[in-house]
Specification:
The structure is a homotetramer. In chain A, 28% of the residues lie in helices and 23% in strands. Chain A contains 14 helices and 24 strands. In chain A, strands 1-2-3-4-5-6 form a six-stranded mixed beta sheet. In chain A, strand 2 and strand 3 form a beta hairpin. Chain A is globular, with a radius of gyration of 23 Å. Chains in contact: A-B, A-C, A-D, B-C, B-D, C-D. Chain A binds chain D through residues 270-279, 288-289, 310-311, 313-314, 337-339, 341-345, 347-348, 350, 353, 355-357, 410-412, 433-435, 437-443, and chain D through 270-279, 288-289, 310-311, 313-314, 337-339, 341-345, 347-348, 350, 353, 355-357, 410-412, 433-435, 437-443.
């Protein structure tokens, strides 16, 4: 039996290929499907089934593309009217060689969410493993906030899915969730690549509440909803367009400047200090590994994107990440990287950097971390807060006539926020390197909000 | 948390790298250690600990080599006097970043066998995963026949290790064994890459016996003991020699012939039909993926080895496999493969092939399968049996004056047996393509031994 | 300056990527264009120009596909009315960064053939290198037999192209031809990856003749014209269809048998002895590396193809080779290779093998080598001749009531011929392993035709 | 015939593998010899000969290591008493399959320098290709300044080697030199991967002088001699030590700080702006691709080295480059890169950056380019000059009480110079991004030295 987990790093997204006896199924494929084809070929497996545990919001699914390449059937939960594929319902079973996949409808994250129970008919009828999608993660459960007017209802559904469908499978069943640590689909997903029902029952805080407490907890929970989610939802219901044939190409500095003048978005994928000391004016600062997490907050789908790196070595990966969230209008990259731009004699943007020891508490300190993290760990006394993904909508809250120190967890999101502020004409900006992690490691003073994370009433 | 399983295919051997927080441990490394270094580098982990669950018999351990490359400490069970490394005892704990590995002494397969319980201190003190070495496999348990005069004692020890140490860890604990399906270290290892204690308790037949039944079962069990095991045991107690610097080189047909004349062993790594229709006279037939399973039955460690393939494409892998079981005296390979030999105008050996439909029941039919498989599935009426790995010791049982049809499971081991018989001057030999699998698929008649697999008394 | 030669092995086809200063040109791209995109990305080059030295006959060009992926312009000779791309004429110049490519019209192989002279404007106006397409090879010149009624005219044109256009560039100019040793586009191409005009002038036999001798020599020359050439010519004039999305998939033996019954062609890509001792009945024997050379003789474009290997490891390459010559209807491969078929208990085909020492001169000996090779090197006394690619059209020449020994150079083409004869019901067939190479190495008697290679009158 | 050029990027060093008929020779192998073994295996070639065109000064040769792995013979010029290998003399010939390599003694760069003329005996006795070592490059010739008291003598020897040995081989002979553009072994090596004698005769400026002019030109030429050259010379005469087994490991920020306190050299391999805005105090700034060019100026061989990158992705390459020039005492790298350091809350170093438009002409402007480039292209009026590799020896020339703008070609060497000045306590430092390339592209004023590059008398 082959069980392969395929991780899409920036998204912390897990897809899976399982197979035996010449056949394979893929669960929640991403859009760049070569990895599944390669694995299937390597193991001599024909991909016969493609399951989607739900219509994903945070990336483009690859089901249609993979189906076209393999002839496999696409299957998803019946509680949504997808324009492609075949609906499945609780109890439906599918054979993949000697393996069986049985559908559990496990709504809560969304209405059409399903889980898939794997049994090996060569061994027994006992469940061996369950693909839980966004219902159950290692150390967390799925978010239930996609329907603002049905918060309690969805939380209740998730509770029932967990307690009535998934947990009864038995402690010894292996759990393969759709996301790992770092995903925007769960706030506290733990850092372990797989888990079991038994281990989750013993250690997952969300499974240690009664139904009412669970619902109250989930209703109070806040998660960000990046604007690109709406595009993904539309794409994934109808099947996203195929990845375009045109490959990104190198641009000379002149071409970069020309494209930018016509509306192309230049995205600088270097780290915070490189960006601070010299960048293409107007560029957005999103470090390479953050592309699939943050590009969707600020890039629209109608303007071309041009990447710039220090030595171009991260560009290929950036393109892959951007395409995973549907950005197909990627023109290219600045050939020779930032150095080529600098050599061209053109203007260069800059901002300040400082360590946590140099932060001047009398200035305007802007904390751009996730609000939950800010609440949980505390913040710099007197600091303001706007999430890095929401700067543009709150731009007027940031004073133009003061020195602004921008801080996040490590420095990357701060650099993104600084780049947005620079695009709006701000000039007195400093990125705090090392962020609140450095602040806390240096033992500097913290302030905590009095209000609890979850309201009592 | 990183959990990587590294499979050495022919041996069905699992080694593991686990890590978090910048540190990693490797469990039961093989001799070609590049894979561990690459994984550690890729994840930014320093390998700090190397554990051996026991002194392995079926391959050369890579602990010393890996320790030299990383500075890590080698740790193994205290119940054997290894000439290197540090002995560990029940309850000893080791930190690998935020992870803990706790030693369970789990004798039975050998006296010094240990298991390692993994906990994640960031989450809880509950056990998350256990590395069981050769104590517990998916669907089977370790063999207990290495001390012929202590069969019952070792079986009892294994039972106690399982029931008193491993199973009590809890159903939800993930089990990572040292071998997978196909290993010579267990007769019935199931085809799943990992398992849990709960799933094994529900499905593993060896866990469904009381202590006495278990002991009787294990005492009655038969396993083969290839001659090279003795070399591995000596190597692994003292630490095997480093892999030699000299790389195998291409040989012209003249050089192959010259080397063979001086005692080099020519090993033909093609399939049964290719070997049958034309091979270098005197060569041993071991298909590429069977090198690490069967070379150790017939190759000694003092004569050079030369591989021959159809197009050379499998030679690199054959060399890796041979080195994993300590064959360092590999001179090279026949450049241009069997075609080059044929083009040279030299003599070529041949034998017959036939399908199961063409087997003549009046001739001498030699079944070379594992005796347990023969007993379990039945055999061709009237067929004789010698295991493929033991032909040389039983050569006189095979008649020289009759047509001999050699059959195994699929044809590979039959080809090996034929090649041994050819080396002893036999001429009237036919390899049955497709083996007993074809025989059974064709619905041809089977005979079963009356005696049960496990004696009643 | 980047100069990369990309070799398509079976076809002995050379394509090239050259670039500098951020731009690149590709000469004669093949259909699987990933290699050009990867090279361009690795060197930070935008592919801006795609040149075709002529409408190729022996493979599908990748110009349209590469143009779609890069936006580059496709350019070819003006003397053919291609339905895509831009015609170029003698003296036209194109800038690729600081490099210049100047067109030389060099007809002879075809009317629209061009060569491309590379100069580096950073250095001098002197020619540095010339891409000669099928005009000039290392050790040979292009074939001129595509227009049977214009043989002398085309040979004369080629002579003029060589002597008036290419050779005058100067001895020190590097020559990059479109084919290397082993191509069907030239009988005597030498085994060197590149050459110079000076070296060719000193060593190329075709350049050592006056115009009349050259024309007589070329007019007398014979080359094979595989049926698929006609398809390639049609494809390449209009632009071939894109490579289909559907990937070949594993077939079970049942599925292979079912597909074959409906007309699928099973192609066995193993070597001659493997095929001889056991193959799927009805399969065609074309060794893996011979797919792009020989599939086009016997496979049509309307029936699906299924490959079978010993262990599947060569299937991917076989698919690539088949696609390079336009075979898009590839269903898949026999999962688990020939062993899986044998294990299924189905019937297996066989033929005999022998060494050259065992060839019985009183039987029918069929020589299937290239006729030119047969003439040049001599043949077995009394042997008949049909080229391996033309067996089907000459099937009646082979006696059904005699033992037939089939021989070629090494054994591969003999196995192909045997497989064709088997498909036509022949049974008394033996493949001579090692072929005429073995025959000559063994010092066995040869006969030579009296007639010279090139007729005097 | 296989001709493979293997480029060691930072060093712009070319080594070659040539082979045919089952045998291969390697010319000037580098120390990490895997690439040669892989190529030989891929083509089925046994490496039988290893040639050194001379005792190299700029990198560790891999001859001994490769000889140990292959059993090949090491051969070098007779005019130096190497402690290993076999001396060869003018006219000596070596067979590599059907190829011949004939020795030409071509002193000038060094006394023992040889060239190797390749002929293909299957074709003719005419020379096909020549490996010229450091005698003749594309567009340049080797430096002749290694014996300061024999400048004229060596230049004369080189002239004779070129005119009497190499050029007479004929215009059509391909030239394969030991270095490409960017090497420290020649000031004006052109950007083309290979060349011919004919093309060099037409375009190489050094071949357009009479003997006296040539000698005057070479005697006047200046080249830098990095301190590590002396180590390489000692190593290469005796055979360098094998690459150590111990692999570099990840260091936590604490460990980096601890090691640095004990004398380890921290080398920051990011670009100039990343370094400027935040670096580990005391670290040396050498961008990744500059390691093999500049580490040898400032790192000694007795202190450990620790690399720091932005995301660790360049560390592996940095280690390879450092080992190529003999740095074996590489402890590791800062795990998690500069971000991990920042997150630790430790102090961070900084310096300024500016564009060429912001350079204040009234400040101290320090030009750290190669002096030849400064002379050839002109410089900023009033700027001082110290070569980036020689800052430490001229540290007192740089004022401590003034703002210092450091400029080079693009910014990399300036960053190196700044890092040296920072280590000496300078604080008022600004790296000019884009360097003189930007300056010239921006059309800013230049000053040229009156003195010609080559003295008239």
């Amino acid at each position: 039996m082959i069980i392969e987990r395929i991780v899409s790093d920036g998204l912390a997204h897990n897809s899976y290929l399982i197979g035996a006896g010449g056949e394979a199924a893929v669960i929640d494929p991403r859009r760049d499907t070569g990895v599944y084809l390669d694995l299937a070929e390597q193991h001599g497996l024909a991909i016969t089934h493609i399951f989607e545990t739900h219509r994903n919001e945070d990336y483009c699914v690859g089901s249609l593309e993979l189906a076209e390449k393999t002839g496999a059937q696409v299957l998803h939960g019946a509680q949504m009217d997808f324009t492609y594929g075949v609906p499945v319902r609780d109890g439906d079973e599918f054979s993949v060689g000697p393996l069986r996949l049985r559908v559990l409808e496990t709504p809560g994250h969304t209405d059409e969410s399903i889980s898939l129970v794997l049994t090996d008919t060569r061994v027994s009828r006992d469940p061996f493993l369950v693909f839980t999608g966004d219902a159950l993660f290692a150390g967390d459960v799925g978010r239930t906030d996609f329907f603002p007017d049905r918060l309690g209802e969805m939380a209740g559904k998730l509770h029932d899915s967990l307690w009535k469908k998934i947990l009864p499978l038995g402690d010894g069943v292996i759990v393969c969730p759709a996301h790992g640590a770092g995903s925007v689909c769960g706030g506290g997903i733990a850092d372990r690549p797989l888990t079991t029902i038994g281990y989750e029952k013993r250690t997952n805080p969300a499974l240690d509440m009664d139904r009412d407490t669970f619902i109250r907890f989930k209703v109070a929970e806040r998660h960000y909803y990046p604007p690109y989610f709406a595009v993904m939802e539309r794409y994934n219901r109808a099947g996203p367009p195929p990845i375009p044939a045109r490959t990104p190409r190198p641009f000379s500095p002149d071409e970069v400047a020309g494209a930018a003048a016509k509306g192309a978005l230049v995205v600088d994928i270097r780290g915070p200090s490189a960006f601070a000391a010299g960048h293409i004016p107007g560029s957005l600062s999103i470090w390479q590994r953050g592309i699939s997490s943050f590009l969707g907050y600020y890039a629209d789908y109608t303007h071309p994107i041009i990447f710039v790196d220090e030595f171009d070595c991260g560009v290929t990966d950036a393109v892959v990440q951007a395409r995973r969230i549907g950005y197909d209008l990627i023109s290219g990259y600045c050939a020779g990287g930032m150095t080529a731009w600098a050599r061209s004699g053109r203007l260069i943007g800059r901002c300040g950097t400082c360590t946590v020891h140099e932060v001047d508490a009398t200035r305007y300190i802007l904390d751009v971390r996730d609000i939950d993290v800010r609440k949980k760990t505390g913040h710099i006394p007197g600091s303001a807060h706007i999430y890095a993904g929401q700067i543009e909508g709150h731009i007027d809250e940031v004073p133009r006539d003061r020195d602004v120190y921008v801080i996040c967890d490590s420095g990357f999101k701060a650099s993104l926020a600084v780049s947005i502020l620079l695009r709006h004409g701000y000039t007195r900006l400093t990125t705090v390197l090392g962020g609140m992690t450095a602040w806390m490691n240096a033992g500097l003073p913290l302030e905590k909000e009095v209000a609890p994370l979850m309201g009592a009433a």
